[in-house]
Amino acid sequence: MQTAAQGAGASDRLYDRIGRFLDDHRLSPDPAHYAFVHAILTDPNGSLARAVEALIDGGVRLHRDDIARLGGPADAARPAPASTPRPPVARKIAPPPEATQSDALAEQTQNQVETFAAVIRAIQAGTSEFGADLARNAAVISRGESIGLATLAQLTGEMLERVDAAENQMKQATAEAESLREKLAEARATARRDPLTGLANRLAFNEALVHCFQAGHDCHLALCDVDRFKRINDELGHAVGDRVLHSIGAILAEEGKGHIVCRHGGEEFAILMHGLSNAEATALIDRARDSVRERRMRVRETGEPVGEITFSAGITAFRPGDTQETLFARADLLLYRAKNEGRDRALSDG
């Protein structure tokens, strides 16, 4: 019999799977989309799930129009604007990132918080006790009662000891606070880094995107998708595929130094370039494509060549009135065209 804890765990896993599916297919997390994906994942052998599997076979992204044709919820089938054709760019649903490093950092930070709290409680207790002693002795003096030199010396010694103890506790609290600040800064950086490639993740990329919108200066977005990546995973295994992505990420980071390079999901990367003309932005991506194509990768364990690796890209400049949705829609459409026109190319609307 399934326990309540097991049931809750299964529900959490299903929730995570639904979220990853929506994210990988760029479907908004509204109730209609959620219900559609829930129906697929909870009945994987059903006719709806089989139809979706056939449609996305090869890594094609599911679109709202597809949901409408498959008889999905009406709210999920809102048509895209006529000026934005469906761009079924090849992509593979990526496994959830390993959280070992993040979990360890979270545990360290929690321990640091608890230690800091314990030090503060000790300081508060010592201060309270010290205050009570002072009040008690002040009352004795105010009543005019005589205090012998020995008693006065004892009280003075106790007060000095408490002051010294309080100073040491404050030093410890200051050291703990500094350590905690460093851990929190590290946690913040980790939360914005892709664990596989070390590049910025979507959270960091979206924050940079907001700054670009606010600054209003020249910015370009490039969406880059590895060509025929499914072949690598199918023929050579996911471990090799991960190393290929890591290598491509390093090349993009090197060529895009000074700009924001992000692993946007699966085998797709996004680059946010600022201060470049259309020609300069396209040239940067072309240099990266050349570097990736010329890199001769081999399977570490066998020495077998991976084969030629290429990627396609769509590049678009920020326009007045742009939103994140309109910006990505243009770049996605250009990427789709680059794939259709033979792959291993970058198309720009500039």
Characterization of the model:
It is a single chain. This protein has 350 residues and is an alpha+beta fold. Helix content is 60%, strand content 9%. The protein has eleven helices and five strands. It has helices spanning 4-24, 31-42, 47-56, 64-69, 100-142, 149-191, 202-215, 229-236, 238-255, 278-294, 324-340; strands spanning 219-226, 260-265, 268-274, 311-317, 346-348. A five-stranded mixed sheet has the order 2-3-1-4-5, sandwiched between helices. Strand 4, helix 11 and strand 5 (346-348) form a beta-alpha-beta unit. 27% of the residues are buried.
Rough shape?
elongated
The profile of the biggest β sheet is: 5 strands, mixed
Distance between the termini: 62 Å
Q: Which value, in Å, is the CA radius of gyration?
A: 30 Å
Strand order of the largest sheet: 2-3-1-4-5
Q: Outline the low-pLDDT stretches.
A: 73-100
SS field, number of helical segments: 11
Per-chain topology:
Elements: H1 4-24, H2 31-42, H3 47-56, H4 64-69, H5 100-142, H6 149-191, H7 202-215, E1 219-226, H8 229-236, H9 238-255, E2 260-265, E3 268-274, H10 278-294, E4 311-317, H11 324-340, E5 346-348
Parallel strand pairs: 4-5
Antiparallel strand pairs: 1-3, 1-4, 2-3
Helix pairs in contact: 1-2, 5-6, 8-9, 9-10
Summarize the structure.
Helices cover 60% and strands 9% of the residues. The chain has a five-stranded mixed β-sheet with strand order 2-3-1-4-5, with helices on both faces. It has helices at residues 4-24, 31-42, 47-56, 64-69, 100-142, 149-191, 202-215, 229-236, 238-255, 278-294, 324-340; strands at 219-226, 260-265, 268-274, 311-317, 346-348.
